[in-house]
Amino acid sequence: MTPAAHRHLSERDPVMRRLIREHGKCSLVPETRRPPFQSLVLAVAHQQLNGTAAEAILRRFKSLFPGRRFPRPQDLARVTDGELRACGFSFAKIKALRDLAAKTLAGVVPAPREIARLSDDEIIARLTQVRGVGRWTAEMLLIFQLGRGDVLPADDFGVRTGFRRAYRKRELPKPKEILTHGEIWRPHRTTASWYLWCAADAAKERKTDGAPDSYLL
Prior knowledge:
CATH superfamily of the largest domain: Hypothetical protein, domain 2
CATH architecture of the largest domain: Orthogonal Bundle
Number of strands: 0
Largest sheet: none
Distance between the termini: 28 Å
Low-confidence stretches: 208-217
CATH topology of the largest domain: Endonuclease III, domain 1
CATH class of the largest domain: Mainly Alpha
Radius of gyration: 19 Å
Structural class: mainly alpha
Number of domains: 2
Strand content: under 5%
């Protein structure tokens, strides 16, 4: 992220200024070469699972398509639901993968060149038509694949936790509260979100070290 984002956040919000001082420059680097289809397959695989379990499922999934680094949407027609189930996908996730492949081939899920021309709202509207893809998943794609600079995933538990810790709230804030406060971060809300994730991670580490809750508030 750019120095302009750090400067803007520091000038507009003293709490962000402190977080920037504590955690240094934002090191978020988007994976811009990954097609939307691949990003969404990865997102579906990781839903409600820890990273280790999801990666094991993905390894088995990719092994169904020898000769390819990652399958294309049309390749899913070559495998059965039983084979996908054997990889570890639930029946709900298999339906999501089938719908994702169909909507990618139909053009609902944009191709890489097209998605680059769409606005954030247009992308969210298109992607959330896919079974199993909600707003949060679309926002993660905007941040971590497309590198969009003004995304605030207010429903994200890490963002909410980081906001609670950084702004010394006694209760987990509602998404609306974060969105309202986040207006002062525009047009650099992605960078602000990164610092809230840092705040959440730091609080988790302090609690693991035995710090009392009063220290974390």
